[in-house]
Amino acid sequence: MHMKKFFTTLIIDLILGIVVTGGFILWFYVLPKNYDTEGTVVASANTDTEQFTLPSTEGNSSEEEDTSVEEEETTTEESSSKRSKPSGNGHSFGSSDSPGTKGRGNTGSSQTSDYEADASESQEVSDSDKTRTEVESYSGDTVSYTIHKVTYGSGSDTVTYYVADLYVSNISCIQTAFADGSYGKNIKDTIANMAEENNALLAMTGDTYGSSEVGVVIRNGVLYRETSSDADVCVLYTDGTMETYSADDFDADAVIEKGAWQAWTFGPSLLDGSGNVLSSFNTNSYLNQNHPRAAIGYVEPGHYVFVVVDGRDEGYSCGVTITELATIMSEEGCMLAYNLDGGKSSAMYADGEYVNQPADGGREVSDIIYITEASDN
């Protein structure tokens, strides 16, 4: 009798435990929670001014059309001439506190440590013959961009990524959007839906702010959250400059005073401010493995780079490590670069369709970064 009562009690306790655990998971990780706040305006952009000059496109359109097929056979040496890289190279390594980067941070996990950049991985990326094909371009009054598909490697080691080299004449052309237009937790939608709802010319995944209740969130000049986390923070300012900060060195008041237009919390930072791969990254062993990736890069005010790397698709693209991603961003001419939400979230959308092939068909996310003409804001 006592044993029967014991087992009955044990089963009831197990069921209760499962119910409580399931309820906890649902509440914190599944159920959407709208925070019902409009945030605090901390910066604004004057859409009537031309802050930056777009590159001239006169006489280039016919040439691009004639050479697009030939670019399919372009090698590393040929494609490198198409990039204008102010300094650094794909296998130079900078310190963690070089100009443009403020201290060091990590990817938000509590189990991170310093992972040295792998010089051999970086060199292999730099030495690889790359096929670079233009897949789309756009030239408007305040925005212009060109998207290239780049591949290197072979067999199971093939890597495929997409590079959007973009220019804006006004910082207001770089916008962000929340899923369903609502700031909150676990509120998600597809990148395609968010892009269409916001008339985006070009969009990609953001920093998945909605999966956490900590981390800095400044979007389109509005401060929603300044709660500290242990991750790097990337800030885009109204003057077009970009900086990255470690959690310890981030000062919300200081960046707001300077004119923070956007602030993302994910990371890690990838480059040292002079175009060189950082000597080490605070991350963990899982995140340092090959994965699909998304990153934003800064060349100079008004000139930025979006990159998405496909992965988990053998023979098409295996993904890249953090070091390899940093090397790609360096080769694309970036002075600073920042790792965003990757994996199945890694996606780029333009002209009504996905540019890349998101892993397993992609997934819904909490936010996007997108480009729009200044007059559309």
Describe this structure in words.
There is one protein chain. This protein is 20% helix and 29% strand. It has 377 residues and is α+β, with helices and mostly antiparallel strands. It has 2 domains: 1-31; 35-376, no CATH class. It has a 6-stranded antiparallel beta sheet, covered by helices on one side. Strands 9-24-11-22-23 form a 5-stranded antiparallel beta sheet, covered by helices on one side. Strand 22 (348-350) and strand 23 form a beta hairpin. The termini are far apart.
What labels would you give this structure?
single chain, 7 helices, five-stranded antiparallel sheet, six-stranded antiparallel sheet
Element layout with pairings:
Elements: H1 2-30, E1 33-34, E2 40-41, H2 61-67, H3 76-80, E3 93-94, E4 101-102, E5 113-116, H4 119-127, E6 131-139, E7 143-152, E8 159-168, E9 174-178, E10 184-185, H5 191-197, E11 202-205, E12 217-219, E13 222-225, E14 232-237, E15 242-245, H6 252-258, E16 260-266, E17 277-278, E18 280-283, E19 293-300, E20 303-309, H7 322-331, E21 336-339, E22 348-350, E23 353-354, E24 367-371
Parallel strand pairs: 3-17, 4-15
Antiparallel strand pairs: 1-10, 2-13, 5-18, 6-7, 7-8, 8-20, 9-24, 11-22, 11-24, 12-13, 14-15, 14-16, 19-20, 19-21, 22-23
Helix pairs in contact: 4-7
- Count of DSSP-assigned helices: 7
Question: What is the average of the pLDDT values?
Answer: 84
Strand content: 25-35%
In total, the number of domains comes to 2
Tell the overall outline: globular
Characterize the largest beta sheet: strand count, sense, and whether it forms a barrel.
6 strands, antiparallel
Strand order of the largest sheet: 6-7-8-20-19-21
